[in-house]
UniProtKB/TrEMBL annotation:
One of its GO terms (molecular function) is oxidoreductase activity. Residues 15-186 form the Nitroreductase domain. Belongs to the nitroreductase family. It holds the Pfam family Nitroreductase. Coiled coil: none annotated. The lineage of its organism: Bacteria, Thermotogati, Deinococcota, Deinococci, Deinococcales. Keywords: Oxidoreductase. CDD domains: nitroreductase. It comes from the Bacteria. This is Nitroreductase.
Amino acid sequence: MTATTTKTLTVQEAIETRVSIRKFVQEPMDQNDLHEILRLATLAPTANNVQPTRFAVIQNKELQQKLQEVSYNQSQITSAPAVIVVYSDFEDVLENVEQNFPASMGEEQIQSRAAALRQQFGQQDVAQRGQWALSQANITFGFLMVAARGKGYDTVPMLGFQPEKVRELLGLPEHVQFAGLLPIGKRAEEGFPHHRHSIERVTKFY
Ligand SMILES: Cc1cc2nc3c(=O)[nH]c(=O)nc-3n(C[C@H](O)[C@H](O)[C@H](O)COP(=O)(O)O)c2cc1C
């Protein structure tokens, strides 16, 4: 544990004060906070509750350096005490479908639901169902950013990296798809004020 006490923000405060941060205070992540942030992110909903999102947490400067090299040398990757790689792995889901259902459901129900899911997704190819799973992982990615900010941490979502190189670096199978990289830590800069479209610009009311 670090000495810093973390005040939990309201959802509104977390959303309003989240900005992308690319320079972080040089101190390790509090591991309890890290676990709690990940736990909160896993509460994100997924279709059929399939839970295809996976996390790879990197807190090793050498590996972060290598990750930075395959991310167009974006320095926030080594500035942050940790980087959370968020990806979907739907093949893992299909191989372990039974785990998606609570034991309280009973073995017969579990087997029948598992067979239905396998049948449904067995008709799609790996890329197709991988894309579907990625849309679930993207929701979790959003939850993760808000959860982090809620616990007093800062992040920057990133898609500027070479996915095939990141897969290779982390030893991940070819079928996994990335929601993004998320350097996380405490801010050592203010970030930019939000610049957003008005509600009228982006909304049609019917
Ligand atoms: C999916 C996604 C990918 C992004 N990729 C990068 C990136 O590779 N590098 C980077 O510096 N910022 C990246 N950003 C951060 C955006 O530039 C930033 O969110 C946007 O300018 C709005 O600023 P704010 O996050 O401070 O509100 C990304 C943001 C999102 C949502």
